[in-house]
What we know:
The structure is a homodimer.
Chain A lengths: L1 H5 L12 H5 L7 E4 L10 H11 L7 E5 L5 H9 L3 E5 L5 H7 L8 E2 L4 H9 L6 E8 L1 E2 L5 E2 L7 H7 E9 L10 E2 L33 E7 L13 H19 L10 E3 L3 H12 L5 E4 L2 E2 L1 H8 L3 E6 L1 E2 L3 H9 L1 H5 L2 E4 L1 H4 L2 H7 L2 E5 L2 E3 L4 E2 L2 E2 L3 E2 L6 H7 L2 E5 L3 E2 L4 E2 L1 E2 L14 E4 L2 E4 L5 H11 L6 H15 L13 H9 L7 H5 L3
Parallel strand pairs in A: 1-2, 1-5, 2-3, 3-4, 5-8, 8-10, 9-16, 11-17, 12-14, 13-15, 14-16, 17-22, 18-25, 22-26
Antiparallel strand pairs in A: 6-7, 18-19, 20-21, 23-24, 26-27
Amino acid sequence: MDWEKRLRCEALKEKLMTAEEAALLLEDGMTVAVSGFTPSGCPKAVPLALAEQVRSGKRKLRLNLLSGASTGEELDSAWASLGIIARRLPYMTSGALRAAVNGKAGEPVAFTDIHLGQLAQNTRLGFYGPVHVAIIEAAAVTEEGNLIPTTAVGCSQAFIDAAERVIVELNLKQSAELEGFHDIVRLPDPPCRGPVPLTQVGQRIGTPWLRCPAEKIAAVVLSEAPEKPRPLAPEDEVSRRIAANILAFLQKEKAAGRPSADRLPLQSGVGSVANAVLLGLKDGEFSHLRFYSEVMQDGILDLIDAGKADLASATSLSLSEDGMRRLLENLERYRSKIVLRDSEISNSAELIRRLGVIAMNTAVEADIYGNVNSSQMGGTNIYNGIGGSGDYARSSAISIFMTGSVAKNGAVSCIVPMVPHVDHTEHDVDVLVTEQGYADLRGLSPKERARQIIENCAHPAYRPQLRAYFERACAATGGAQTPQLLEECFSFHTRLRETGSMLITDEKEREKPC
Amino acid sequence: MDWEKRLRCEALKEKLMTAEEAALLLEDGMTVAVSGFTPSGCPKAVPLALAEQVRSGKRKLRLNLLSGASTGEELDSAWASLGIIARRLPYMTSGALRAAVNGKAGEPVAFTDIHLGQLAQNTRLGFYGPVHVAIIEAAAVTEEGNLIPTTAVGCSQAFIDAAERVIVELNLKQSAELEGFHDIVRLPDPPCRGPVPLTQVGQRIGTPWLRCPAEKIAAVVLSEAPEKPRPLAPEDEVSRRIAANILAFLQKEKAAGRPSADRLPLQSGVGSVANAVLLGLKDGEFSHLRFYSEVMQDGILDLIDAGKADLASATSLSLSEDGMRRLLENLERYRSKIVLRDSEISNSAELIRRLGVIAMNTAVEADIYGNVNSSQMGGTNIYNGIGGSGDYARSSAISIFMTGSVAKNGAVSCIVPMVPHVDHTEHDVDVLVTEQGYADLRGLSPKERARQIIENCAHPAYRPQLRAYFERACAATGGAQTPQLLEECFSFHTRLRETGSMLITDEKEREKPC
Lengths: 514, 514
């Protein structure tokens, strides 16, 4: 039987139970921490079994849920729509959970949005209280009882170490061939610790398995729950133009003799713009590319196949169905080029700084002074959260943020006078890129940045009203360091709410204060 | 002669010239980088000579000025008031410079406010263009031509490495006994570099001198310019109560079995609150204290003398006249306990994270969701800048921010609905402390944070109007993640401007939207 080959530790066979039985180990008020990062690598069977127990009225409970990043539908969506989640961190992509967090549907959820790179240590140090149960998806259990992760590492090792009990979900639908892709490091906590001994993107410094004391394991559940692959983000013209502008910036850096993608590793996120950047790199001048990122998309496989990328380090395989098939059919090509790490390592300030990563993150909106909102719509409703963007932006050698200049068919300008929520301050944004162009903000004063951002990044339709605001603010504050008009700085946002668009169509209106 | 004992490199004697002659090496449009961090360790003679050349009408020029942090009056104030500074980074404390930066007096200055820990690498990588001249204050020059720094290290080594030419100011008024306090590290730039091999606060990993190729040295100037000591910040009751609340938090952590000041090094800034915290520690329960900070104040000498502190690492000796005398009269007691480092090391994300520093930084104001403004008055006029606060806050094990609950005799609430400038986001603030109490924000959602901050940190006089705002915002946004009213969130600030106070005295007014 396949499962016997995978559950190679004899002693753990007596811990075998059904998902329904294991779900009964979760009790009201507990804190539960799960494997995975994005939907990849999350437990599925036990969460779904618990959801069914609640849905059918057999049980009623509320839990605190920790995960590496977001989770799959089986967890966040299923649990949030049943009111199971009382408290949640650090990140989400589920619509049902988002509605609950923002008070729009279901039971309220207390959501904390933290830097993903800091989650493991904070959990170990007890900042979020005790972790009662960790649920870890595994592709296999070794003879010694060590766990082979599946498509992501996330915070699994830290969660195991912090947890009182562990439920192992041995997922037979995940490829057993994933064994060997992971490099797991158990970081000690301060103050007694040395450097993380990683100096190269592809270096292995740990073990291919998660260590878990057998006595902590309360259950082993066999699962055949398939992982839903992430659909490829559609390409579009705006993304292609943003990508072209990022490449133009990288080429300018190289031409100026400064380190660029030829010498520094890249961090690249997910979504259509990140995809377009990867596609652009495939046709671009840079070769021997290295990626030091959170997630690995199909585009990185393409770059490896094209001989353009040498190495990719991530904490999660965020591949499409086709991408995962490609990986598994060409294991030998990819095994030496891909490393999956703990998010504490992929998002480590120490390593991002040491390696000199060029960070590329997505903004919801940016203001004319370079502050970035990457989490809250209208300043109040959280969308996904900051994820690892701050880990990379802050410690990178060069921090790039990108966004379309407009959204909602032009009704929303993504360049505004002041962002109503700041996730990345002006001090953490080196380059801002839209499909209109890029603004290289390094070494500029706020007023110089404003001129660059308005003229290079804002959509032409919005430039007149942004210029008018900036000039009025300069005049009213007597040329202060950061000219802002506190009565008017959110006029773009309030106009959107009142008229359905941020755009001022009447030329005379632009010159008037609100 | 004293100077001959200090200028021990024969070959450099032929580079001796007067400050006036050396000042002629500075030409219009140049970028000049100087030693020092705070007024400590900055060059004085050459800057004053240049100022005199400009003041007397002999010369007219504008320069870009880089320094480790702020500088002395001889530099920022003298130059800014004569219009010599065109561009300035990364930090300031000079009133004349501040006025110029904010457009209030003198020639405009383009000021860039960056994380001090990132300045060295950015400069070496050429992000701010070429450095034409570095001016380095030295206490001595060794036989080999290496430079012994004076009261601060700052970015001196990086500036020497980046500069085309170097002017050495050999300051005979600085004690020659400072030799041996410094530990200078020349960090390579990414991508080819290993870990910074520092694992203990007091460890020495470099050399006691700055390395400078003899051929770069364009001038050696003998100086007898005294360094103006920093006056001790006055103690006051509010500072003492803030300090007591910080100590209460640290004791709670220890009692809960979590790492606290007994196990983790402390970062402590300057000013009356930082002083009061040091004083509180002297009488408190913690011993074997270690400091990993930017600046070293008198209070740390007191803690060493009292047997409470074992080690202090800093980049600057920011001592009073009495403190400096005490240091020099008891060199043997202090030499093994104090290390002065490059600011790239003192403010290193890698090291702050590894050591698990407890960061204590000062806020200008904080909002009810935990975002902190530490640089801009009214959101528009910069005061000093962020300095190293972000380096420590982001990478620390625990990030504490502190402020009085009110300023200007109660006319200003330092807890507001929304800060009009964000330097540290909600993601970087673990604990907020005022003289009223502390709010432990770890793991809380924004709405939970708001209740804690209003009830524990805000001044009682402002609590009713903060509660009223928060409740209105919750109602209007339907309990969104971060309830804010964009039309009203700056009403505290606009009320201050219009009425001279943020306070609503009429009870009924509180309930009304603006």
